[in-house]
Inverse folding.
């Protein structure tokens, strides 16, 4: 029996072959449902996701004739990883989606805690069992902050333009009035030695 991977012993490999054949028989008309079921069953057997090439070698070893492309298998792996596999009546997909939503909620809660000026967000996270935030309110706050950020950037660009214009105007003013202003210290400098010289002569 050909080995698909050195990580699979004969018993595991036989289980993967059986999972591939069962998925193939259960979903003759849907490659998506076929791959989703096979990868879920394989995940239960190996307790981890593998590469698309590994799954393709398992399918080939199991005698599956409709071998999908590596890209199609990779998309099925992505669905399994993010918990968005096709609905097939199995509760595994729902559980994976629930776990993904919980993880997302935890990340958003941490972000909102950082955005909270009085630290109330951090306190909400520390209280287990309590909803850390209102998702709709969090989304509105994020939108408001993004709007304020955009407004501040526009204002900063306007101030930068005004500053540049003021610098140009100042440079032009100095170019027109600079010779007289520069001449005053120069004249005083030229007269100073004359006074010292006249003092010596006296």
């Amino acid at each position: 029996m050909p080995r698909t991977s050195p990580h699979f012993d004969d018993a595991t490999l036989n289980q993967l072959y059986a999972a591939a054949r069962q998925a193939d028989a259960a979903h003759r008309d849907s490659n998506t449902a076929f791959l989703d079921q096979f990868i879920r069953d394989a995940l239960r057997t190996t307790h981890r996701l593998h590469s698309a090439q590994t799954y393709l070698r398992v399918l080939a070893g199991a005698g599956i004739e409709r071998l999908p492309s590596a890209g199609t298998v990779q998309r099925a792996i992505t669905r399994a990883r993010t918990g968005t596999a096709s609905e097939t009546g199995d509760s595994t997909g729902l559980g994976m989606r629930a776990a993904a939503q919980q993880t997302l909620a935890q990340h958003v809660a941490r972000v909102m805690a950082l955005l909270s000026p009085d630290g109330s967000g951090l306190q909400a996270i520390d209280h287990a069992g309590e909803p850390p935030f209102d998702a709709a309110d969090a989304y509105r706050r994020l939108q408001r902050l993004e709007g304020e950020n955009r407004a501040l950037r526009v204002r900063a660009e306007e101030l930068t333009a005004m500053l540049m214009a003021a610098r140009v105007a100042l440079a032009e003013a100095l170019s027109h009035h600079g010779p007289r202003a520069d001449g005053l210290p120069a004249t005083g400098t030229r007269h100073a030695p004359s006074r010292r010289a006249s003092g010596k002569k006296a």
In short: The radius of gyration is 37 Å. Helices lie at 10-26, 31-46, 52-61, 70-82, 91-115, 120-126, 135-201. The longest helix spans residues 135-201.
